[in-house]
Amino acid sequence: MSNIKKVLVVGGGIGGQSVAIGLKKAGFAVDVVEILSEFNVYGVGIIQQANALRALDAIGVADEVMRRGSPYGKVKLCLPHGVQIGEAGTPPIGRFPSHNGISRRILHDVLFEEAQKIGLKYRMGVTVESIDNHPDIANVTFTDGTTDSYDIVIAADGVYSKVRKLIFGEFKPNYVGLSVWRYPFKRPAGLDTGYIFFNKKHKIGVIPMTVESCYIFLNSAEGDNPMIPEDQLVEKLKGYMSAYPVPVVQELIPQVTDAKLVNYRALETLKMPAPWYKNRVVVLGDAAHTTIPQLGSGAALAIEDAVVLIEELQKEGEVEAIFERYMKRRYERCMMVVDVSETLGAWELLEYNDQPLPEGANMGMLMGKTGMALTAPI
Ligand SMILES: Cc1cc2nc3c(=O)[nH]c(=O)nc-3n(C[C@H](O)[C@H](O)[C@H](O)COP(=O)(O)OP(=O)(O)OC[C@H]3O[C@@H](n4cnc5c(N)ncnc54)[C@H](O)[C@@H]3O)c2cc1C
């Protein structure tokens, strides 16, 4: 084992909790700081592909996540009336199904409960003020005025990472011209798997979350200024949904009533150039690679980052060699997901703007090929 013993994790999201849980179980002393004073995870769902479940299994929570979520097979790709034109998704890996839909809140709860069970303490409402990042130690000053020293600091503080900015400088996310709308629903009786319906102007996914609930995502192009006033959210979303005659969408439309439940956001990507480490600080998850959700795989990457880092930290070696091995195992795979997602997004944008697609462009095929690639061991 390396001589790393004491670790600070900055950020208590999916990646931060995953790495903190795994390291604590492996015997490291772990502190977690989370900038929010209270978690406020929104109530729509998240898709976990088989590779995400495999990674969650490595930190001991996959079974609970599947028990409290909704495992399903491949996603059916359909025309707006419901005629199926293909299917997509990561093939099953061992006992893990192609997909598990789950509420983000429930996923967060599973991780948080596991963290509490093993004695991890989170310092809520606190973050790093500064990091004195030496080759042999990181001396950290926190926003509550306290200080401490760590063998390593793991930046898991998301797309707008403060740690990344402090140590590596400014990298700005890139708006891709697309937006996503999400809304939670009571699950319709016939929803047997995940569905995506394609229209010329947008696409809608209907995804199981639990036995009783599901959510939709709807991708649209909102132009250069994607801000939409709250009082227009409900009507605009209902208008978009009405372009899908398929009964499973039609029966959800009357349930869209509360603007506060419409989770609307413009989509951004960010690719931090290698290396994702410097001296004693290392970056993971969205802080290093933010992908648009066209493959539903951003969180999967964050959890896989965590698993690989945990494995490498338990092996022999100097910190730089450990971080380099982590990079080597992660960089290409993460870039593949970000790049393919960007390509799928660019094709969608062309379609929504009535532009021709490049020759040979085939979304279903690209999604299938990438899903297959993600079954490779990490
Ligand atoms: C619309 C949309 C849909 C998506 N759907 C899917 C999907 O279906 N499947 C999938 O796998 N992925 C999906 N993703 C991607 C996924 O949500 C992210 O990749 C994942 O949340 C990244 O986890 P993270 O822990 O790296 O970052 P985050 O989830 O952003 O967590 C960062 C944490 O750090 C905290 N924080 C921020 N700043 C600081 C600070 N300075 N100090 C301390 N704490 C801080 C935040 O409060 C937060 O708790 C989707 C993303 C979007 C935008």
Automatic annotation (TrEMBL):
Signal peptide: none annotated. Residues 6-339 form the FAD-binding domain. InterPro entries: FAD-bd, FAD-dep_Monooxygenase_BioMet, FAD/NAD-bd_sf. The keyword Oxidoreductase applies. Coiled coil: none annotated. PANTHER family: MONOOXYGENASE (PTHR13789), PUTATIVE (AFU_ORTHOLOGUE AFUA_6G14510)-RELATED (PTHR13789:SF309). This is Monooxygenase. It comes from Runella rosea.
